[in-house]
Design goal:
The chain is α+β, with helices and mostly antiparallel strands. The chain contains 1 helix and 4 strands; from the N terminus they run βαβββ. The radius of gyration is 17 Å and the shape is elongated.
Amino acid sequence: MIYKVVTASSAEELTKRVNQILMNGAWEVDGSHHVVETHRQNRYRGSDLIDTIITREYSQTMKNIA
């Protein structure tokens, strides 16, 4: 059995990529999706915290059913 991990920088992009692979007919989703925080940066103005920028990676494991 062949496995493939599909990744994207947004949930919408991951959905598009997974749907494109599913349309080929030889792949199916294996398990649930995962979201990992890849970067977190706090932004300050002086000593005041203004906001936090968070970068995430979305992934889904697919398996070949052919």
